[in-house]
Design brief:
TIM Barrel; about 250 residues; 8-stranded parallel sheet; alpha/beta; 11 helices; binds 1,3-dihydroxyacetonephosphate
Length: about 250
């Protein structure tokens, strides 16, 4: 059976002290959950996570990383800096970064390569816009994102990659993709990884869905056998709701 994984992307919402309070409330609620759990927080909250999550199995990560190794890149944070404070994962290529900060697949590819150098898992976010879905180009968009973002990577490096399928139109809109749409997208992702690498690689890669997932609708997706879990935005900001979502997922997918 696939590993179950739920990761929260708290975006630019909580301060470090609010994150500490979130963790204090969240940990007891999910301590015994049979699921890998992580939260991706602003850079300034990483040290707090490291301290507050020390005695737990909950992972923490960044929401972005620089595509550069080091040097005159004011305001950037490198993979080496993340690794040095014990951060073992980071989102890359979130649609908000693609859309608002014009991030390109080639830059995301560089970020993944930087992360690999420092043993950091990249959660690669991909997904089509509403216009692309309506135009019937979802498969092309997803495959192009995968091909370009994973360019030059070796199969053994896929252990450090998680794919998050997040259709842009489902993020923060309350409009989730249907279970059928998610299943189709996950199939496209696994087939493309198989084509680029091997069938085993396509089978083993961890794939998450993100976009308006909540405690009540997660049950509809929990039965998708090819899906490992979820990348959760808004609901990951509140301990009880996030924990309810996790328990509904693992309860349903036993
Ligand atoms: P929402 O769960 O708020 O739709 O956000 C999803 C997301 O962007 C996770 O990365």
């Amino acid at each position: 059976m696939l590993n179950k994984v739920v990761i929260g992307n708290q975006k630019m919402n909580l301060t470090a002290s609010q994150t500490r309070r979130f963790i204090n409330a969240f940990v007891p609620l999910v301590e015994h959950a049979n699921c890998e759990i992580g939260i991706c927080v602003p850079y300034t909250n990483l040290a707090t996570c490291k301290r507050a999550l020390k005695e737990t199995k909950i992972m923490f990560g960044a929401q972005n990383v620089s595509e550069f190794e080091r040097g005159a890149y004011t305001g950037e944070i490198s993979s080496a800096m993340l690794a040095d404070i014990g951060c073992k994962m980071s989102l890359v290529g979130h649609s908000e970064r693609r859309k608002i900060f014009s991030e390109q697949n080639s830059q995301i590819n560089n970020k993944i390569k930087q992360n690999l150098k420092y043993n950091i898992t990249s959660i690669l976010c991909i997904g089509e816009s509403k216009r692309e879905r309506t135009a019937g180009t979802t498969k092309n968009v997803i495959c192009k994102q995968l091909d370009e973002c994973l360019s030059g990577l070796y199969e053994n490096e896929l252990e450090k990659i998680i794919i998050a399928y997040e259709p842009v139109w489902a993020i923060g809109t309350g409009q989730t993709a249907t279970a059928k749409q998610i299943e189709e997208a996950v199939k496209i992702i696994r087939e493309e990884i198989s084509r680029l690498y091997t069938e085993i690689a396509g089978k083993n890669i961890v794939v998450l869905y993100g976009g308006s997932v909540k405690a009540d609708n997660v049950k509809m997706f929990a039965g998708i056998k090819s899906l490992n879990g979820f990348l959760v935005g808004g609901v990951s900001l509140e301990a009880q709701s996030f924990s309810d979502l996790i328990h509904n997922f693992i309860g349903k997918s036993k």
